[in-house]
Amino acid sequence: MRIIVAKDYEGMCVNGANLIAAQILLKPDCVLGLATGSTPCGIYDRLAGKYQAGELDFSAVRSVNLDEYVGLSPENDQSYRYFMQKNLFSRVNIRPENTHVPDGLAADIEAECQRYEALIAGYGYPDLQLLGIGLNGHIGFNEPEDQFPVATHRVALTESTIAANSRFFENPAEVPRAAITMGIGSIMRAKRVLLAISGENKKEIARAALCGPVTPQVPASILQLHPDVTVILDAAAAALL
Ligand code: F6R
Fold first, then answer.
1. Cβ-contact 105, 73 below 8 angstroms
2. To test ligand 1's pocket by mutation, which of 12, 66, 157 has the most ligand atoms within 8 angstroms of CB?
3. How far apart are CA 80 and CA 22, in angstroms?
4. Which atom of ligand 1 is nearest to the CA of 139?
5. How far apart are CA 226 and CA 214, in angstroms?
6. Contacts (Cβ under 8 Å, ≥6 apart) of 110
7. Could you give the C-alpha distances from 101 to 57, 95, 205, 220, in angstroms and in order?
8. Which of 138, 142, 153, 234 is catalytic?
9. CB-based contact 112:102 (threshold 8 Å)
10. DSSP-based three-state secondary structure for 194
11. Alpha helices in 175-235 (DSSP H)
12. Helical (H) or strand (E) element with 4
């Protein structure tokens, strides 16, 4: 595991974008595993900047996203498909048909999970998987549990997550109750993993995930067993390492 500590969020994003850009230069038709959330926004900004400066070509890149809410359409501004369109896909020359996010509107969610896992497997799993980490150590929507979930699956969101999300919705009935997420097994099959951690509030979980025991109670801790992981942190998140 390589650990890079940057001075601040900006520095972390510069490092993260450089590593992803290097992956695309190395293999122009690479498969990128992508994440949503606040952490990668600055990384996506810099990748878009490199494309606009003519330094990067996404025309052959394929992408698979980690997760999506059940019941939200791509047009819903809380959906992860919407997030990806806004923050990255619409700003670079990636082909729409090469971008994949689980279909939260699928009539049969179990079948959608199987289709998505087969799609990732058909791609040979990501060449590089970008991850953020939740305050409880989750990666994707893989929450602390008694065992590591293996393949893409449906997750029932906890009451606290539903309550936290409700601020983004006018109508409480619209707040998603479930999500589809790649499993820990799907994530661990990526050839390389790039875990980005930012902020003072992540310092405890950063230490638990990177230095503590490998346990499904801290899902990100399994990354200690992956042969090619780079962790980029800002100084605030690295304070307890
Ligand atoms: C997002 C995802 C989540 C986030 C995590 C951290 O697709 O899978 O695991 O990476 O919740 O979110 P932020 O970056 O908002 O702190």
1. yes
2. 66
3. 25
4. 9
5. 11
6. 154
7. 21, 14, 27, 21
8. 138
9. yes
10. strand
11. 184-188, 203-211
12. strand 2-6
Q: Please tell me the distance between residue 54's alpha carbon and the centre of ligand 1 in angstroms.
A: 29
Residue 131: in which H helix or E strand, if any? strand 128-131
239 three-state secondary structure? coil
Instruction: For 116-132, write each residue's pLDDT tens digit.
Output: 999 999 999 999 999 99
Atom 12, ligand 1: residue with shortest CA distance: 37
Compute, in angstroms, the gap from residue 67 CA to the centroid of ligand 1. Answer: 10
- pLDDT per residue as tens digits for the range 169-216: 888 888 999 999 999 999 999 999 999 999 999 999 999 999 999 999
Would you say 47 and 92 are in contact if contact means Cβ atoms under 8 Å apart?
A: yes
Protein residue with its CA nearest to atom 8 in ligand 1: 140
